[in-house]
Design a protein that fits this description.
heterodimer, A: alpha+beta, 6 helices, about 45% helix, B: about 200 residues, alpha+beta, about 55% helix
């Protein structure tokens, strides 16, 4: 009676941007004698591991973490609204059509989100802020212009602008801030 | 814990809003602190975030908030290249302390207040950050839409980003053990790493 020996080797590896990939190889062989099991198992293990390790080095498609699977439009609006909600200001974002020299209506030239761009322009418009002063603020804080700010930097600038126009109570307890942001 | 919740409920008004709406909101966004609490104890999470039972503010929490206020002011001042003097920082601390102070009336609040200021002084002595050094971000709200992974929007506030390192301030009554701290705050630090990457595009 033939003895069937089935060996499987699988490996799963993490990749950047929260990805992972895995590969496995299964082989089935027949033995004539039980005494061959140990030797054959060791041989198959080395063989399969070698095969899997060689192939798994090819990672194939890798998603761009900043865009892949993201609903940017909805996210942007949510960002802007949360900034507003987090400071007790109930106004929706402005439409950004005021032609400010901080940037054209097109969001392509801004590195932050569309929601953040609209909120910055709305604050400038509603509170008659000096655009040059805002530009100077960005330069002073980050060493770059407003349009060059990434999402984190824009968020910080918005926080400062809200504080500047009195929309953010000074010294507000931290736990309240957290609650406001998470609500 | 149930006994504690019941005793607190008596002094707190009924939870506002519709429970279903609250749960819906909680499912749309998640913060590291909420996530940690949920994993720690589902019932505690329910009391805090669904039933919205207010936890009585402790002196330790107040102290932590005041220390955060001073450090925030210090970091913002560095940002604007208008460093604050020790006297100004102490005034900032005193102002923060006087706001919403949970007075116990037994003198322990004065002692706590001094402890808090000593913590601030120790931080300034040991943090290794120069006044002339600009931060990358100070107390900044950030978020990452993880909808593509079937997850809610992750939100959080980064206390400080300096030299591309995320720093979260914690106050403690005893000298912390680095390994234990890393383990205890693993969820928070992991979430912050995701948020930072999403907000800056940097690793």
């Amino acid at each position: 009676m033939a003895i069937v020996l089935e060996a499987n080797y699988a490996k799963k590896l993490g990749l950047p941007n929260f990805s992972s990939h895995q590969y496995s190889v299964t082989i089935r062989t027949e033995l004539t004698d039980l005494s061959q099991v140990e030797t054959e198992s060791a041989r198959l293990y080395a063989l399969l591991q070698d095969a899997v390790d060689r192939e798994i080095q090819e990672v194939g498609f890798m998603p761009d973490a900043t865009r892949y699977g993201m609903n940017n439009c909805a996210n942007d609006v949510a960002t802007a609204n949360r900034h507003v909600n987090g400071t007790g200001n109930g106004h929706p974002p402005a439409n950004g059509k005021n032609g400010s020299h901080l940037g054209p209506p097109q969001s392509e030239s801004w590195k932050c989100t569309e929601g953040q761009r609209k909120l910055i322009l709305q604050l400038v418009h509603d509170h008659r802020l000096d655009k040059n002063e805002i530009e100077t603020m960005a330069q002073q804080m980050f060493g770059i212009g407003v349009k060059e700010l990434n999402k984190m930097q824009a968020s910080n600038l918005i926080d400062d602008l809200l504080e500047k126009v009195g929309k953010k109570p000074r010294g507000r307890p931290r736990w309240q801030k957290r609650e406001a942001v998470s609500s | 814990m149930i006994a504690l919740a019941e005793s607190t409920t008596s002094s707190v008004p009924s939870p506002p809003g519709n429970t279903r709406e609250i749960i819906g909101c909680l499912q749309r966004t998640v913060s590291p602190s909420r996530l940690s609490l949920f994993l720690q104890c589902r019932l505690k999470f329910f009391f805090r975030h669904v039933a919205k039972i207010q936890k009585q503010k402790t002196l330790a929490l107040h102290l932590g908030g005041c220390v955060h206020s001073v450090l925030k002011a210090w970091n913002k001042a560095r940002w604007r290249q208008q460093p604050l003097t020790l006297k100004q920082l102490h005034e900032e601390y005193a102002t923060a302390w006087s706001e919403n102070e949970p007075s116990l009336g037994d003198g322990s609040d004065l002692e706590e207040r001094q402890i808090g200021w000593r913590l601030v002084e120790t931080y300034f002595r040991q943090c290794g950050i120069q006044e002339s050094e600009k931060p990358d971000a100070v107390e900044v709200p950030v978020e990452a839409d993880l909808g593509g992974h079937g997850l809610p929007i992750l939100i959080g506030i980064l206390d400080l980003v300096q030299r591309r390192t995320i720093i979260d301030f914690k106050t403690s009554s005893s000298t912390p053990n680095p390994e234990r701290v890393a383990h205890t705050h693993e969820i928070q630090t992991s979430c912050y790493a995701v948020l930072y990457r999403e907000a800056t595009g940097q690793q």
